[in-house]
Amino acid sequence: MNPQEVLQRYWGYAEFRPLQEDIIRSVLEGKDTLALLPTGGGKSICFQVPALCMDGVCLVITPLIALMKDQVHQLTKRGIPAVALYAGMSHREIDIALDNCVYGGVRFLYISPERLKTKLFQERLKKMNVSLLAVDESHCISQWGYDFRPAYLEIAAIKKLLPDKPTIALTATATREVKQDILEKLEMKNPAVFQKSFARKNLSYSAFHLEAKEAKLLEILQRVGGSSIVYVRTRKRTQEVAAFLRSQRISADYYHAGLTTPERSTKQDQWIANRIRVIVATNAFGMGIDKPDVRTVIHLDTPDSPEAYYQEAGRAGRDEKMAFAVALFHKKDTKEVLERAASSVTTKEEMQRVYQSLANYYKMAVGSNAMESLPFDLVTFCQSFSIKPIDGLKALRQLEEIGVIQLSEGVFQEAKLHIPISKGALYEFEVANAKFDAVIKAILRLYGGDLFQNFLAVKEADIAKLCKQPADMTKKQMTFLTEKGILDYKPATDTPRITFLVPRMLPIDLPIDHAFIQFRHDTAVRKAQAMVDYLESRIQCRTRILQAYFDEKTEENCGVCDFCLNKKRNRPEVPLDKVLEAIAQGASNLYVLGEKLPQYRNDHLIQAVRMLVEDGHVQLDGDSFHRMTH
Q1: Domain locations in the chain?
Q2: What is the mean pLDDT of the chain?
Q3: What kind of fold does domain 198-329+537-556 have according to CATH?
Q4: How much is the pLDDT for 410?
Q5: The two domains 198-329+537-556 and 569-630 share their CATH topology (first three levels equal)
Q6: Nearest to residue 285, comparing CAs of 246, 232, 227, 224?
Q7: 3-state class of 233 per DSSP?
Q8: Mean pLDDT lowest for which of 144-148, 225-229, 546-550, 551-555?
Q9: Which pLDDT belongs to residue 83?
Q10: CATH class in words for 3-195
Q11: CA neighbours within 13 Å on the CB side: how many for 353?
């Protein structure tokens, strides 16, 4: 199939978005390709479509388990075989997944960068027919980036095992230094570079310096209808703000990483289905969520960098209809952002102490535990060794940055099951152990013979129901059968994990580079200051500020941010009274408004509507609007 046929067959789209087709053509021509597309710009299609036009497995390197799981789910739902390797999988699970990539027709293998240097992976890689290497979130390779992952530096070595295979690197946010780093560290040869403008014509940025942030939040939500995300920094604050909005008769709920998996799923599903209008969340919310009709993203607390802000704000208006990204702040917020960045470095002694505490926590011997992934609870760990959680997290992050450990976010991993013995051996066991006959028959009836070849996601509740016994008893039986080697059962989990990337060493031997740590500290301070400068600016188009930060040169103002709208208030392109009159006469969306006022350009009409919304004369509800009565 050609790219258009693949797009139509698997995604149901008739045409590509701007730049996607050019990027895909570059990959199919065998060129190393760097693609910079903003959040919601359709990056995954840029490697998934060409990979399906080629023979073999596409190797996808990505840092977040949640994104891996989401993309594998989306591909398999479309009938495309895909697997992922991530922290928490057993050696047997990994072994079977890699075998299927060699022999089983898998088209996409998602893997975290930390797994690249394992002997098991590299030996299987040599046997795979790899068609394409895709490096997602490729800004993680750069020490200049805001989310540096040392393991990304291993990718160049992996490329040597894939001679003449094209590489595509993708990211939504990259400064000039980061772009250069990506090209150099990935050793891209004569690369084709595609960069979509960081400007979003349908997204109006604004920032308000004020004390009563909740009052302004309420005003925005009353003026602009439709779905919304409100970002705050702490879990406690998510609950407080959601409760405040509900007290004002606005449908709202809260979301953070401390909720149970069922709670997170329920809240997320209700918001996506528009049964909840506003979700108040920490930055744990949003990754991999495909909801195009978000009308407002409002920050009540200030992000640590323009990259983080741009990604979060970019979740508004992915349907390319009018949307607003609003930052609310006061002097205390900007001071705290700068103080956090300034105090982001801990001492060598503290890093050594926390590392030794980890070794004691897990009872690890020197030289052991390489690439072992274990459940981790920060609060319990810190309480066990009298470490302040903020200091512990700071030291753990720096141990990450020197490539010793990797912290993984808590992501729900469904229960999995595999039968490691033959059908004959299983039958013999059943005959000799009648009390397990019901559970074994239920498993086979629900999930079939594929269990002998692969790990399959299972639901313990369904197995228990078929056995007509409590779920706890069923879990105990499957655990017992696993201990006896009859099953390989992994219960469902959603706990964060810590992976030890190198064998446990003595604290004195930690590869602590003071110059590198200072460089990362200085980088964090520069990013925090750039974020404060963005918020406090009153003399420049906000979209242009972001474009300049990402090294996109332009002389054109966006025309729709707070600066541009204020500048135009005294000389609007379209008489506001005419627009207001047309809306009062039934022009309830841009299409009808354009028919009633055909002498004006569509973008000028959009600007006029936004100015009327800002002034409180018009209320937006999705892509429709109406005149407000006072």
Answers
A1: 3-195, 198-329+537-556, 341-412+495-524, 416-490, 569-630
A2: 90
A3: Rossmann fold (3.40.50)
A4: 65
A5: no
A6: 232
A7: coil
A8: 144-148
A9: 94
A10: alpha beta
A11: 15
Other CB atoms within 10 A of residue 5 CB = 12
8 A C-beta contact, residue 222 and residue 571: no
- Burial code (b: 16+ CB inside 10 Å, e: under 16) for 379-408 equals eebbeeeebeeeebbbbbebbbbbbbbbbb
Spatial contact of 584 and 617, defined as CB atoms under 8 Å apart: no
Rounded-to-10 torsion of CA 150, 492, 496, 356: -90
Nearest CA to 155 out of 145, 168, 146, 174 is that of 168
Number of Cβ within a 10 Å radius of residue 412 = 16
The DSSP code for 138 is G
Average pLDDT over residues 7-12: 94
**DSSP labels for 562-618?**
HHHHHHHTTS-SS-HHHHHHHHHTT--BHHHHHHH-TTS-HHHHHHHHHHHHHTTSE
Q: Which residues contact 435 (CB under 8 A, 6 or more apart)?
A: none
More confident residue, 80 or 604: 80
Over range 204-212, report the average pLDDT: 93
Model pLDDT, residue 514: 87
Calculate the alpha carbon distances from 622 to 295, 317, 393, 585 in Å: 7, 10, 40, 19
Separation CA 347–CA 394 (nearest Å): 10
Tokens for 337?
């952002």
The token duo for 335 is 């001071």
Say which residues have a Cβ less than 8 Å from residue 278's Cβ, sequence separation at least 6. 221, 227, 228, 229, 230, 242, 245, 250, 251, 252, 253
User: Which residues are paired to 324 by β-bridges?
Assistant: 204, 296
Share of the chain above pLDDT 70, in %: 98
Interatomic CA distance for residues 312 and 335, integer angstroms = 21
The architecture (CATH level 2) of 569-630 comes to Orthogonal Bundle (1.10)
Candidate from 14-28, 208-222, 552-566, 597-611 with smallest mean pLDDT? 597-611
DSSP-derived 3-state class of residue 192: strand
Nearest CA to 459 among 448, 469, 450, 446? 446
pLDDT of residue 55: 94
Measured CA to CA, the distance from residue 532 to residue 302 in angstroms comes to 9
Domain boundaries 341-412+495-524, CATH class: mainly alpha
Q: Which residues of 347-357 are buried (b: 16+ CB within 10 A; e: fewer)?
A: eeebbbbbbbb
> Which pTM does this prediction carry?
0.81
| Bridge partner residues of 488 (DSSP) | 418
Average pLDDT estimate for 600-613: 84
- Residue owning tokens 């400064």: 175
Looking up tokens 């990604």 gives 311
Q: Which of 218, 51, 239, 29 is nearest to 132 (CA)?
A: 51
Q: Which helix (H) or strand (E) holds 253?
A: strand 252-255
Residues counted in the chain: 630
Alpha-carbon span 24 to 9, nearest angstrom: 16
- Distance of alpha carbon 600 from its chain centroid, rounded? 40
**Rounded Cα distance, 209 and 217, in Å:** 12
What are 539-551's pLDDT values in tens digits? 899 999 999 999 9
In angstroms, the CA 537 to CA 548 distance is 13
